[in-house]
Backbone:
């Protein structure tokens, strides 16, 4: 078993806001991140798949395919976008919202990529790591 | 003469939009950056001052002072903000706007820091470098 | 389960010296690190906690809290300090000393942070990684 | 148990080519990597060993020994070499070839280092990570 | 005047060999780089242009144009290529060869890009920096 | 003219202390750096030489020579050392001391390397950059 990782980047805006809370509580819990004009990051994504290298090609997966899958399933919707306003996973409704924290972005990326990797066959998605900054990152490895 | 540099970072949103142009022209010139929901970056700032090291302290400037000056003059207004909507240099008016490109951010940071460095005496501002991403950066070294 | 990591840095001095050995043996085993005047590093710390993101905040832990805990439990005692002379875990006594290798620093940081993370509830400490240089790092993940 | 990692780098050439396929299929599967003049990379290697720190030295392994083992077992044969033409694991024969993909390089490095770490005693080889570029890396952790 | 830089990368093979010298002298002067099977690097290119930001767009140059120019003039010929065997500037003839050192690559990249930047108008090429590894880089700033 | 740079690293301890001042003033001016037990850094050095590439070798200088010169003139005395206690430029005497700030280290490295580069002929020392941390660096380019 070899673990193969492809890194990708996207630039996006977000803010942290719980519509069920008054402004004061949002500011208290989320600090400067609660600014509803949004702020942004250069996110770095590390997508890891696990499998046996194909004995002929030496590939766990074709990295050209993996790069294209990341672009199609994630970057096209996330890059140069406002995560709260334009990415459905983080849409704000009357009943609440999934806050686009690094943790929740990692889960969202996993859910977008996992079916594509499974459909391709041969390898499984092993880990999605998302860096919000070089100092903060989150990993999701699927449900046990 | 020694050139001393302090790095700092801030996270902000922006978009590229000329209010004098129709949407089509904005999209053609600015591409994905014209999305008015905004997108964002982890900006890195490198502020360079030049001067003779003080013979007693060995300092060109006190780096604690320089860090505080960058926070007061720049980061407090730029970090976790939307550059077009919250930073006056990039405000959009009927007559147009200064687009928050990396080039214009470098000039704006210079104009904010240069009076503070001059007032402190002893060293002069030599260069402001702004990274929008690790792949793109702009430098302003003042007017000749 | 999501694994959330916060990076922090500190600058410290140390040397490698076993008081039960003669100087020659210290030099033979520890090489240039046995210089008792000390040398130093910019250490980078990666602290990983594991847990379910809170359904309302999207946080595994509040990163502001985690940053403050790392400062309070570790950085205040380690940063700009001499590890052998000022940090109790590495004090030299007649009976010996715990050498401040990267391995032992990782264990010491874990032991300082683990009770604070446990007391906060909701997430568990998963991993402490310490970089002595970009080329050398050690990880401790607790006792199995 | 502590996991201790030493990073090393080497610069090498390679190409991807299956001698059992016609040129068209090699180009289709391997793209620009199929250029038989070769191209090259600055590879980064991260070698992780796992064990208990020695109570006297604080070492999981002596990093001077580990560095020398990596040089002797891997770098002397891989650095400034053409992997397909000069490294036996990737030699091309009539019956085929093990393609020097990042995946296969990770396995080859593991097989070279594992006996040396085992012979030294005290720690076991835990992981070999190979970066082909900062964007692509593979890990091998031995057979389960 | 603002200095705007775009970074790009390419992976290539090369070797150092002067056809006018016997093998012994090539090995003595060029060391491991004289291996004629070639070795390779992930080169990083930093292309800096200088000019006044356009008052409407805020651009010194359009970075999409600059990226395309670097790809067209440099990367298409250099990436995944063997510099000595496939790039005309470094071709080996009976009368000698321009060795693809980092210094000479910087000059070659400048000569390829300078006419394109000049033809585009508005900004001038200011600097080409080439990293052979993170530890070695060369800059060419044109003839004075 | 090409500017060629070689990077090197060393790990050292230092503190900031003016023997002509009382302890309170040292603490006030130098903050945590005034701790006389010392603290340390992984310093990164970038040494830039300028000259015409040799038409035969393509070298501004032989990088193997430059690396050896940096080791001989600087690293042998600075690496794994306490700058105040072991490097003569920063020795503390009754009449005062040159504080080992990043600025003064850059000047000291220049003064050590400049005669060696001049004696070698063909290229001149152009710049010495010293990083104390990734966030702080100083450059010395000689006297005008």
Residues:
């Amino acid at each position: 078993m070899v673990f193969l990782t492809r890194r990708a980047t996207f630039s996006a805006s977000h803010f942290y806001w719980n519509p069920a809370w008054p402004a004061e509580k949002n500011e208290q819990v989320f600090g400067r991140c609660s600014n509803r004009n949004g702020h942004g990051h250069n996110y770095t994504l590390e997508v890891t798949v696990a499998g046996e290298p194909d004995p002929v090609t030496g590939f766990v997966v074709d990295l050209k395919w993996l790069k294209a899958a990341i672009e199609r399933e994630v970057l096209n919707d996330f890059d140069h976008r406002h995560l709260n306003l334009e990415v459905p996973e983080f849409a704000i409704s009357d009943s609440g919202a999934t806050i686009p924290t690094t943790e929740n972005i990692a889960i969202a990326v996993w859910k977008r990529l996992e079916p594509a990797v499974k459909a391709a066959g041969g390898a499984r998605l092993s880990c999605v790591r998302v860096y919000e900054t070089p100092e903060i990152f989150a990993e999701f490895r699927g449900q046990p």
Notes: The radius of gyration of chain C is 17 Å. Residues 10 and 75 of chain C are 6 Å apart (CA to CA). The first strand of chain C starts at residue 2 and ends at 14.
